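User: Quick sanity check before I run a bigger batch. Here is a single chain. Can you write out its predicted 3D structure?
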Amino acid sequence: MPVCGDCKHFLPQNTNSAANDGSCLAQVIDGLAEETDMYMDVAKCPVKSYEPLERVRTNVSEFTWDPLLRSARGFEEK
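Assistant: Done. Predicted structure follows.
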């Protein structure tokens, strides 16, 4: 079951690595990206724009500001 955090349109909070929420860049309303949960099932996505990430980084000591960083539990480095 893919989750929003596996989608390349999801931008996690970089200031709080423990946060479960972030922005969905596929859902833009009035110029602002909609906030969504990292672990939400993509079947619930209102715009059906899921595209899987090709690369995931989990090492917070090395890639702190990388938009592909997924330091939360459940994401594997690939």
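Residues 61 and 71 are 10 Å apart (CA to CA).

User: Great, the batch can go ahead then.
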